[in-house]
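Minutes, project check-in

Agenda point 3 was the complex the collaborators sent over. CS summarized: two entities, 631 residues total, and the question is how they sit relative to each other. Sequences were read into the notes so everyone works from the same version.
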Amino acid sequence: MGLENYILVLGFIFGFYMNWNIGANDVANSMASAVGAKAITLKQAILIAGILNVLGATFIGSHVTDTIRKGIVATDVFTDPHVVLLGALSALLAAALWVSFATWKSLPVSTTHSIVGAMIGFGIMAGGFSVIHWVKLSSVVLSWVISPLFSMVISFIMLKVIIRFVLSIKNPYNQALKLAPLFIGITAFVMVSSFLFKTPLGQNLAVDGYLAFMIALAASFIIGHAGTLLIRRFVTDTYQQRGAEEVFRKIQIGTSCYVALAQGANDVANAIGPLALIYFIVKTGTIAEAVPVPTFLLLYGGVGIACGISMAGYRVMGTIGTKITTLTNTRGFSVDFSAATTVLIASKLGLPVSTTHAAVGGVVGVGLARGLEAVNFGIVIKIMFYWVLTVPVAAITSMVVFLILKWFL
Amino acid sequence: MRIPFMSLFMTSPFDGLQEHAEKVKEVAWAFQQAMECYVITRCTTFEDLRNEVIDLEREADSIKRRIRGHIPKGTLMVVDKFQLFRYLREQDSVLDAVEDAMDWISYKPEPGVPEDIQQDFFLLVDATIEPIEELARMVKEARKYFDGYSNKQRDVVKEIIRTLRRMEHDADKLEDTLKRKVFAEVEDPISVFHLVRLAEIIGYIANHAQNAGDMMRAMIAK
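CS then shared the predicted structure for the full assembly.
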């Protein structure tokens, strides 16, 4: 077995470790509002998140992979496959170490930006500062501001609309049922169009923008009405008492499923991207501009995430379930909807967006709409500090790991 | 800070507000007992009841400080921070007025109220207890309103505020009647002074309850 194969094995190990971390760290973001609003139980959340992350990673993932790798670090300046192998390996390990450390020290970080930072570190080690596309990097910096801000605006508007047209109406429950096709419909529209625009699934179907728009519109109409029929089927008198919240509780099950699916699709690339690069180089001995990601690698990544979710999920989400008691279903829906929409639009614009950032923005928006008895806006500044810190720290860690690995391999 | 999502959520000041309102209610009951004891002359437990009020007041005070101390800059709430503080101050003033009344009573060595006006005193005390009891209910219903922003729930809160105003008006009238009777029927000037002043202090209790209602009206304004 040659040195390359050792590196490949290490890559698989580090890749799994990184995926495990993604699962452990990010599960809270997709399922927190649903668990906090008691739309689903803890067990359901872990089951749904685990399964849908695997499905999302395997069947929808892969497109985002090369955006991160190619966009910010120009891989075409690399000529020595050995250096790139080491670089990818060290980036993977560095990102995983940083995320682990952050999880241990309870620092809020984004796994997406950890890998971006680690890749930058490796790029600098291999080709100097010139290989970094600073314009692309500035788009990362921009996303720290844009994605929470955008999400905040959407959740603010969404909650205001719900209050104005559902909650403050004489019979909120009937009104919620009446407008359910609309709420489910726009959510379905965001989901369907993100699948069509963002994923290889959409590219394989070869639908262009206009057609995709029409498909999404038709699908959202059908899903909206079908979903409402489903909700109506489960209507009993006790639901009437809980009012509109019960209707949104049902809708929220759908939105949290979507967030889990989208997360699997998006985040699997964080760990599988570098792994795919290693795999490609070991198999072919060359470096290509775009590296195909085999489906089995995506599945491998998805399973890694699911393992992280199942092992850390109970502790993380158990805390959420007991700590966040003021989040009701209408609020939770607003947060989920804004996060999903932000992730869709931001990745359409090519920004490496983090679900974490979008979810945080969503909660602040709900707070601004006076939807929660108390939201600590001040904490956002602290959170942002760690967002900013992530990239340089991951980069430096990656550089150090690279130097150490170079010594041994 | 493990989960950024979670660190955004903080303990609601309304929990504290509710707790404070319940404490006020407890004080009201102790006050009622103390007054009943004081008015009929052979009272031996007044000092105990007064100490109970003082203890409860201290507890309520720490709740008040806890609420004020745990709203950092940049907290987003369903109401304005200063509206919340003003409301809390009024709710707390109810307690202070109760304590003032108890203190005032304790300054005079011999207990008791002339038999002719005993009934009027009981009526006045009862008239001030009622609005205090409404406060806790008002906070509870207001929270429900902030949850759903339904107009129906808003009307429930508004109705409580209206009731508070009416109760204060009733208490006012009883206070007037009582003072008139004191001047007409009590001859000892020191007793007159003591009783009139006492009636006024008890009247303040209802006043502060009404003010709390007015602040609540501002909090639920659209």
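Noted in discussion: Chain A is about 80% helix and 0% strand.
Follow-up: revisit at the next meeting once the mutant set is ready.
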